[in-house]
Amino acid sequence: MGMNDTPAANRIHIGFFGRRNAGKSSVVNAVTNQEISIVSEEKGTTTDPVTKTMELLPLGPVVIIDTPGYDDVGTLGELRVKKTKMILNRTDLAVLVVDATEGKTEIEDELLHIFETKKIPHLIVYNKCDLLSVSKMRELVAENSGENVVLVSATDKRNISQLLDQLSVLVDTNQSQPLVADLVDKDDVVILVTPVDSAAPKGRLILPQQQVLRELLDVGAISIVIKPEQIEKTFSSLSRRPRMVITDSQAFDYVANHVPEDILLTSFSILMARYKGFLKTAVAGAEVINSLANGDRILICEGCTHHRQCDDIGTVKLPRWLEEYTGKKFDYKFSSGGGFPDDLSGFSLIIHCGGCMLNEREVKYRMKCAEDAEIPFTNYGTVIACTQGILSRTLEVFQS
Question: Which CATH class is domain 186-271?
């Protein structure tokens, strides 16, 4: 997969924050060498977060996010600040842009406190340094001893290359958890079961299926992509037993009944939970299903927004499977897209999608919100495996 094909969820998310008119948009444009954001002397020109996926050397594939001023005022201003706070939950690297002619205020101090509380690596960028004397610039550096600080001018692009270098230093270059590459060897046969129904995207595979297939190709495994009804014919035509079968979670029941017990079986969603860093939490969360009571409130969340089908997994299938399995009725609330409820009180369980469209930081933020509220947190694939009575079997792939 080339850098241009890197999914947004797997890119480093770099957010630019600060007061209105500090020059955030100008700095973004200078850093990217593109006119991504509208620039004006008028305060509050950026009224909504502006997002751009791109290749930013020497960092590689990134998502650049230009945010509204954190000091915005009025009813609309409060909503804009709220949106900025939401962006912080998926920011891997924060850039605090300060007007060098005015210096830091309590607004910048509040943002720095948030960065530190959320453990977001950050850089302080003093913009408009072309308007300062050399002695004043030295004072700013001295005042910020111990902080990562760069003095730039978006106007003449002074020190922009230094800013990029500093961002590269702050980026976590540790290899992320693989989806499946560490579970197979070269020439292993792996069967991928991918239903093609009304919910499947026309002309393409969903993102987790694409990512798993690519990792298998990279490791040199032999991938066989089939529909559920082709399982028996596939097994009968193979001269070698497959290493494992990976299925869409919605087909668990059918697939589990047609795959021999001695062959490893899991799902794209369960692999994604491990990849995003919350499989252990998801398994623990699914264990509370048996103790739920009639009328308990359940929050079902999706990380993306899509047109609901008549047999939608989140709003229709999951509730049906839960109620068939437990013999109880529950009170459901649904959320989708970038939003996540601020108030989680009253919920007995949170069931999240695999999170393929969210970066790891945002998924872990949502998980932490649930943990702080002492609410079990799990995901679609884990719940489906539980309701089909095969959860322990789907986890054996991580124990072999």
Answer: alpha beta
